[in-house]
């Protein structure tokens, strides 16, 4: 089995279409809206961070917004909290030395979430979601919404390119390579 499932998909059919009065005036309409939610799974930090970055890059490309309550900006590094007392309180709540600079606090979170990228803009994107996950919490049954009302373009791009499945196979005989790609339907053996 695979433990790399990062999303769950549900199809909800709309109950009805638009409702108009006898003169054709719209009284109520149904608009499809799409949100992105994450559920906790058994994946390592590298996989989670890579998936978050790919997802946010798709959203950004299509001008879709995502949750970003992380309180440090980059280029230049600075706290979004202007008051020094608010900064100290935030640092204390996150176990960061109260004298830490914005860059030091940023690097604290980078290390905490095992982010290996050197691109500060990419790190900042990942931290926005990892911070939200840490702040709000999530589980395998309780999701966390990271984007709402996303465009159909983002939805289609996510559906078509971010599915990676990893399988463990039991094979018989001498297999010359440790890895292989199966380019055909697979299923459980009946033997």
Structure description:
- With 191 residues, this protein is an alpha+beta fold.
- Helix content is 34%, strand content 11%.
- It has a two-stranded antiparallel ribbon with strand order 1-2. Strands 3-6 form a two-stranded antiparallel ribbon.
- The longest helix has 17 residues, at 45-61.
- The mean pLDDT is 83.
Could you outline the blueprint of secondary structure elements for this entry?
Layout: E1 19-20, E2 26-28, E3 34-38, H1 45-61, E4 72-73, E5 78-79, H2 84-93, H3 102-112, H4 120-136, E6 144-150, H5 152-161
Antiparallel strand pairs: 1-2, 3-6, 4-5
Helix pairs in contact: 1-4
**Rounded mean pLDDT score:** 83
Which sheet architecture does the biggest sheet show?
A: 2 strands, antiparallel
Q: In order across it, which strands form the biggest sheet?
A: 1-2
Q: Count of DSSP helices? A: 5
Instruction: Say how many strands there are.
Output: 6
Helix-strand topology string? EEEHEEHHHEH
Q: Give helix % range.
A: 25-40%
Output the radius of gyration: 22 Å
Structural class: alpha+beta
Distance between the termini: 18 Å
Strand content: 5-15%
Low-confidence stretches: none
List keywords for this structure.
alpha+beta; 191 residues; 6 strands; two-stranded antiparallel ribbon
Could you write a compact summary of the structure shown?
By secondary structure, this protein is an alpha+beta fold. The chain has helices at residues 45-61, 84-93, 102-112, 120-136, 152-161; strands at residues 19-20, 26-28, 34-38, 72-73, 78-79, 144-150.
